[in-house]
Amino acid sequence: MSELRQNLATKEWYVIATERAKRPHDFTKGKKKHQVLPERVDSCPFCPGNEHMTPPATLVFEDDSGWQVRVVGNKFSVFSPEGTTERRVNGIHRSMTGVGIHEVIIERPEHNTIIPQLSDAQMELVMRAYRSRYRALIKDPRVEMIILFKNYGEGAGCSLAHPHSQIIAMPIVPTHIRYRIEEPRRYYDDFGCCVFCHMAKIEKSEGTRMVSENQHFVAFCPYACGAPYEVWIIPKRHISSFGNTNDEELGSLGKILKDVISRIYYGLSDPDYNYVIRSVPKDEGDALALHWYIKIMPRLTKQAGFELGSGMYVNVTLPEENAKFLRELKLPASGGE
Ligand SMILES: [Zn+2]
Ligand SMILES: [Zn+2]
User: What is the whole-number distance in angstroms between the Cα of residue 289 and the centre of ligand 2?
Assistant: First the structure.
C-alpha cells in the first residue's frame, strides 16, 4: 500500500508510492547523456574574452590568471532593474511595476566545469559570490525577497551550458512563500523552537535519512518529499537569512554542497537538477521561527495531471532508501584540492 507523508516544516503532503518503487538504475537506463563540452566556446557570452557580450559585471573575483567568478546582469531579465515599485488597481485587476534585479553568477571561466570537479576553494568562492550579491541586493529598498538557484541541464530549465547560477531580487513576497513562513511560525508558537533546528537534530539522531554532514551543516532526504533523491542541506546554527551565514560556514557550505551534488552526479549518472536557497523575506532576517536551507531536486520524474490538480507530489521512491544509496556511495578521490 502506498503511504501519505506530511512534511513537518511545510505541512505539505506527499504520496510515497512504494509499490511503484524504482531503483537508481531505473532512472539512469536509456537516459540521454549530457554533451561533452569544450573548455571554451567562441559564441558563449560567459566565456572569457566575451565579456562585452554580457551586461556589466556587478562583482568579479579574480586572481593572477584572470577572473574566477563573475556576476553580471541577466540579459533576459524577468524584472527591470530601473524604476520604482508602483501598485495599480483597475476595477478587479491588481498589478504592479515589474521592478527587480536578475543576475547571473558565472561560476567558473571554463565552459565545461561542473560542481563535482571544483576544488573546495573554488566552491567557496561561488558561495562567497552568492552571499555578497545577496547582501548587496537585499539592501535595495525596493527588494522584499531574494531567490537564489541553479538550473543544471535542459530538463531543469537550463538553456546555457556554461556553469552558472541565478539570483532574482523581487519587490513582493509570493503567496507560496507566505505559506512556508506561516507553518514554522505556528510550530514555534506551539513548541517554542524552530522547526528546522528540530528537524535537523532529529534527522541526525535517527540517521536513516542522512546523506552527509560536516561541522556546520547536515544533508538529508526529507521524510516527506516529492522528488526521488531530493536532499535538503540545513545549517546547524539557527540562521534565518542566508545573508547572515558567516565566513566559516560558507566554506563548509561549499564542501557539503559539492559532496551532495557529487553523490547525485556519480550515483545517478549525471541527472539534470535544480537547487534553490530558501531564505526568508527581508523583514524576517532575524526570525526565531524561520531558518534558511537548500533544497536540491534531481529531475528524474515529470509532474502530471494529478500533481497539477492536487498540488501533491507522488514520489516513487522511499526517502530512506534514497538516503542510504547516496550516503554509502563511494566517491572518486576529488581532484584540484
Ligand atoms: Zn562558456
Ligand atoms: Zn532554526
Answer: 7
Give the model's confidence band at 42: pLDDT under 50 very low, under 70 low, under 90 confident, else very high. Answer: very high
Q: Give the least confident one: 235-239, 243-247, 305-309.
A: 305-309
User: Which residue is it, cell 532574482?
Assistant: 168
Contacts of 216 (CB under 8 A, 6+ apart): 235, 236, 237, 248, 249, 252, 253
Cα separation of 334 and 284, whole Å?
Answer: 38
Q: Ligand 1 centre and the CA of 320: distance in Å?
A: 38
Q: pLDDT of 18-27, one tens digit each?
A: 776 678 888 8
Question: What is the number of the ligand closest to the CA of 38?
Answer: 1
Question: pTM to 2 decimals?
Answer: 0.95
Report which secondary-structure segment, H or E, holds 133: helix 120-138
Cα gap 226→221, rounded to integer Å: 10
Q: 30 C-alpha to center of ligand 2: Å? A: 41
